Amino acid sequence: MNATVAHPASHRRILFASLVGTSVEFYDFYIYATAAALVFPSLFFPAQDPAVRQLLSYASFSVAFFARPLGGLVFGHFGDRLGRKSTLVASLMLMGISTMLIAFLPTYAMIGWVAPALLCLMRFGQGLGLGGEWGGASLLAVENAPPGWANRYGSFPPLGAPVGFIFANGFFLVLGAVMPDDQFRDWGWRLPFLASGLLVGLGLWVRLRLTETPAFVEAAEAGPPPRVPIGELLRTQLLPTLAGTIGTVACFALFYIATVFVIGYGTKDLGYNRETFLGAEMVAILFMAAGILTAGAWADRTSATAILMRGCLLTVPVAAAMAWMVTADALPMLFVWLAAALFVMGLVYGPLGAWLPSLFPARVRYTGVSVTFNIGGIIGGGLTPLIAETLVKRGGLLWVGGYLAAAALLSFAGLWFVRRRAAA
């Protein structure tokens, strides 16, 4: 899976391309997540009860997770048959167009039920694009990695998550600081979606200058590509696909509880100021970036599986501390919990960039990585804000922590299976 070492400039370009693409994609994804927590409930969903509006907004957020496996299948199919480069360009364009169009959507007060329907349609387009993005960016990095550097190279696409989050929440934070709440609700929230066009242009400029990965070229020279990559994947790689899917659940559950759910819960239920809370999240997300980089370096010294398993185990005490530390009028303690949760998130997320590609042969690798990552996203993240919102209303944060701990132990089981199978 490792390629011959190229000129250092080429490697810098490859790593930047894998990082900038996922940063743009995650920026698009997170501006929707932030808007779904802060403004979409009142603008697009007409229920009288604020809690119901919030639930409906989170339900629209989950639409993308159900689109992502379909995007993974489509882009994985063409990525394994036609190549990584053209597929990555197409996924970025789809994500960017869907995001920009949200900036021009009328609200429920303007056109009624058509407004949330169009919002969900654009969210579906975002999910399709991201479904093909993460797997392709991981292959771009890992299939060009020098020997012994696969996990460090593979950590660059996951690093796009905190970078995108910082830009997304930073944009909302600046808007909240420079305009009144009524202007922000009326039109200010549209600006981050409109700005996506500039970022997509940057990503396309970088990616159009790339060449194909050595692993894809070697696979193409060895024989014709699979006619139906998903069919070959399920026929020959079913157990790695199942184990890989389960192994990704913890990272999604941890991230979307520590960001989307906690933003909504902290500002609406605990009464924290929106700008103050977004600022705390932006600083805490730096710990996630540190966790990703740390995990990549550790994984090259030991193994990706070992680091992921340790991250899953550390998620359990983080989950247990949630009900005690996420409270009103205790922002420093809440920040400590956020920082710890997001650092552990880096441990269960960073190594996935190299671990998932290692499970599959090159001829079906794009499909395998995309399917496992995105189905894991449905299980671990798609309904997580909605489930957490329901659980906290019925049993408090203790139930939310129990849900998170269960997700971590499920991923640990998938990782243990892979480790045992490799040792057999």
TrEMBL record:
<keyword id="KW-0813">Transport</keyword>
<feature type="transmembrane region" description="Helical">
    <location>
        <begin position="400"/>
        <end position="418"/>
    </location>
</feature>
<dbReference type="InterPro" id="IPR020846">
    <property type="entry name" value="MFS_dom"/>
</dbReference>
<dbReference type="GO" id="GO:0022857">
    <property type="term" value="F:transmembrane transporter activity"/>
</dbReference>
<feature type="transmembrane region" description="Helical">
    <location>
        <begin position="191"/>
        <end position="208"/>
    </location>
</feature>
<feature type="transmembrane region" description="Helical">
    <location>
        <begin position="159"/>
        <end position="179"/>
    </location>
</feature>
<keyword id="KW-0812">Transmembrane</keyword>
<feature type="transmembrane region" description="Helical">
    <location>
        <begin position="88"/>
        <end position="121"/>
    </location>
</feature>
<feature type="transmembrane region" description="Helical">
    <location>
        <begin position="277"/>
        <end position="299"/>
    </location>
</feature>
<dbReference type="GO" id="GO:0005886">
    <property type="term" value="C:plasma membrane"/>
</dbReference>
<feature type="transmembrane region" description="Helical">
    <location>
        <begin position="311"/>
        <end position="328"/>
    </location>
</feature>
<keyword id="KW-0472">Membrane</keyword>
<dbReference type="InterPro" id="IPR036259">
    <property type="entry name" value="MFS_trans_sf"/>
</dbReference>
<feature type="transmembrane region" description="Helical">
    <location>
        <begin position="242"/>
        <end position="265"/>
    </location>
</feature>
<keyword id="KW-1133">Transmembrane helix</keyword>
<feature type="transmembrane region" description="Helical">
    <location>
        <begin position="368"/>
        <end position="388"/>
    </location>
</feature>
<dbReference type="Pfam" id="PF07690">
    <property type="entry name" value="MFS_1"/>
</dbReference>
<feature type="transmembrane region" description="Helical">
    <location>
        <begin position="29"/>
        <end position="48"/>
    </location>
</feature>
<protein>
    <submittedName>
        <fullName>MFS family permease</fullName>
    </submittedName>
</protein>
<feature type="transmembrane region" description="Helical">
    <location>
        <begin position="334"/>
        <end position="356"/>
    </location>
</feature>
<feature type="transmembrane region" description="Helical">
    <location>
        <begin position="55"/>
        <end position="76"/>
    </location>
</feature>
<feature type="domain" description="Major facilitator superfamily (MFS) profile">
    <location>
        <begin position="14"/>
        <end position="423"/>
    </location>
</feature>
<dbReference type="InterPro" id="IPR011701">
    <property type="entry name" value="MFS"/>
</dbReference>
<keyword id="KW-1003">Cell membrane</keyword>
